[in-house]
Specification:
3-stranded mixed beta sheet; 4 helices; alpha+beta; GMP Synthetase, Chain A, domain 3
Length: 95
């Protein structure tokens, strides 16, 4: 391959104009992979969106919501470890 060719990952990382696209892709990756990271939560938690590194989760049951709030740091750490970078800073639990 000629030296002038670059991978998509390299282009997204180095081109300032593409920073927003990389951010959107990273945010959607968290939503798409959430049930793979936490298969036990599949029936009680729905990942809704990620905005400014805040993950929005819909939890219908107040008991589960309280339990997950206590484990928020562990959930964040597991997500960030899965992606090998800090993608989530906080979680917002809603109904």
């Amino acid at each position: 391959m000629p030296d002038s060719f670059r991978s998509l990952a390299e282009i997204f990382d180095k081109e300032p104009g593409l920073k927003n696209i990389k951010k959107i892709i990273n945010e959607s990756d968290v939503i798409r992979e959430f049930n793979k990271i936490f298969p036990d939560f599949e029936k009680v938690v729905v990942p809704v969106k990620v905005v400014k590194k805040i993950l929005f989760l819909r939890v219908e049951n107040p008991t589960w919501r309280s339990e997950l709030k206590f484990k928020e740091k562990l959930i964040i750490d597991k997500i960030n470890k899965y992606f090998n970078e800090q993608r989530i800073l906080k979680i917002n639990f809603s109904r």
